[in-house]
Design a protein that fits this description.
mainly alpha; two-stranded antiparallel sheet; single chain; about 140 residues; 5 helices; two-stranded antiparallel ribbon
């Protein structure tokens, strides 16, 4: 099947399918006319890729995991290297979430403090300094 049909069957745009191919996640043959040609297994592969991307995995992570993927969801066979890679990714996500929570809390604190200060104009203008010149 050509890229357009694969896109229709999976709901994925052609440029994304070409990206998956460039990342080594998807393989296509070439017809005599030079067009990409995918076999039936590409439909399942694209669905697996989409599910794994939805789990927050990078294309590098997915390239590593795909040989262990079974089914559309997919289920991943639990070899020790695979589990170590997924645990490392989970730790990175946990670290990012913690950093975002700290940033969110700091921003909320600034907003609360500014709200308690009352309404003032910024910068304070007392008439003694010239107004800023627009850039």
């Amino acid at each position: 099947m050509r890229i357009g049909e694969l896109g229709r069957r999976t709901g994925v745009k052609a440029h994304q399918l070409r990206y998956y191919e460039a990342q080594g996640l998807l393989e296509a043959g070439r017809g005599t006319n030079g067009y990409r040609e995918y076999d039936e297994s590409a439909v399942l592969r694209v669905k697996q890729i989409r599910h794994l991307l939805g789990a927050g995995l990078s294309s590098d992570d997915i390239a590593y995991l795909l040989p262990c993927a079974v089914g559309e969801a997919p289920e991943l066979l639990g070899c020790s290297e695979l589990l170590a890679a997924m645990r490392a990714r989970l730790r990175r996500l946990d670290d990012q979430m913690a950093a975002l929570a700290r940033s969110r809390n700091a921003l909320a604190d600034y907003i609360d403090a500014a709200g308690r200060m009352g309404r003032r104009t910024y910068p304070p203008f007392d008439g003694s300094a010239p107004e800023p010149v627009p850039a």
